[in-house]
Amino acid sequence: MSENKYIGGLEEMTLLAVQSLGKDAYGVSIHQALNEAKRKISIGSLYVTLGRLEEKGYVRTIRGEATEMRGGRAKKYFELTGQGARVLTAAQEARFLVMNAHEGLQPWTT
Amino acid sequence: MDYLNLFISVISGGVVIIYIRNTLKRRSGDIDVDLLEKATISVSYTVRELATAIRYTISIIVEAMISVIKDLIDIQVNIFEGITNHRWEKNCVIEVRHDPPKRMQLLLRFALKPKDQAAILGDMEEIFHSMVVRYGYKTARRWYVWHALRSSVSQLVEKVAKWGVVAYIGETIRRIIAP
């Protein structure tokens, strides 16, 4: 898979949340992190995005512990893969290049 | 400010009364009507100030008591309806289990992919319980219903994504309902 593959805004934010949360990255904490960043999405939409990222090989899942508060259901932790980290870095670099584009622009010549 | 006024009026009243007594002693029985009038006014003023100060003190105490009672009621509500899932009814504590709405859980079971079902239901239940503690059952229930509907739509669209036109229509509806 190409490292320069395009990822959407929500995918990028989700990857960033997974990266910053580290070992605590599961549905609730990622949802909270996105909410704090003013991306109000439902848990269902979040899992659709995470499923897409998993299919692309950017994240992997780890089965966690079940608690009484969750009705005895196990947590699903997410971890960034090497490929995911590279794609995220590439996306951030692209963003940086666009932000500083005016410095390297040359005047039009015919 | 009221205490300062009270202090000043008590002192001035006392000074006036002492002055009248001394004057009366000096004049030996010759009563000055003006002085008596002044003394009466001063004493009535003192009494009025004293009443105002007492009223002010009582209002402060009542306000403090009301705030303490309000806090106690809030704590009671939290204890009995939130944290421990207990409710106070007819002088006895009844255990209440705040479960997420059953119909919404059924809808989610139908709509969600089997792979994500346990994780999504668990995550939603975890958020629901923390919201019950923080905001109460009604708000938590409203949140659960709304998010269950949104999650169901997004997951159903994902399920029928291979159907082309249907997927396009579904995606449009999803963007409207759950942007």
Structural write-up:
The complex is a heterodimer of chains A (110) and B (179). Chain A contains five helices and two strands; from the N terminus they run αααββαα. The radius of gyration of chain A is 17 Å and the shape is elongated. Chain A has helices spanning 9-21, 27-36, 43-56, 82-99, 101-104, and strands at 59-66, 74-80. The model of chain A has no long low-confidence stretch (mean pLDDT 85). Chain A is an alpha+beta fold and 110 residues long. Helix content of chain A is 54%, strand content 14%. Chain B is mainly α and 179 residues long. Helix content of chain B is 81%, strand content 4%. Chain B has six helices and two strands. Chain B has helices at 2-27, 33-83, 102-111, 114-135, 137-159, 165-177, and strands at 86-89, 92-95. In chain B, strands 1-2 form a two-stranded antiparallel ribbon. In chain B, strand 1 (86-89) and strand 2 form a beta hairpin. Chain B starts with a helix and ends with a helix. The mean pLDDT of chain B is 76. The A-B interface holds A 26-28, 31, 41-45, 47-48, 51, 66-67, 69-71, 73-76 and B 111-113, 115-116, 118-127, 129-130, 147, 150-155, 158, 178.
Radius of gyration of chain B: 36 Å
% residues in beta strands of chain B: under 5%
**Helical content of chain A, roughly?**
40-55%
Mean pLDDT of chain A: 85
> Which structural class do the helices and strands of chain B define?
mainly alpha
Short description:
The complex is a heterodimer of chains A (110) and B (179). Chain A is an alpha+beta fold and 110 residues long. Chain A is 54% helix and 14% strand.
Short key terms for the protein model shown above:
heterodimer; A: 110 residues; alpha+beta; 5 helices; 2 strands; 14% strand; elongated; B: 179 residues; mainly alpha; two-stranded antiparallel ribbon; 6 helices; 4% strand; rod-shaped
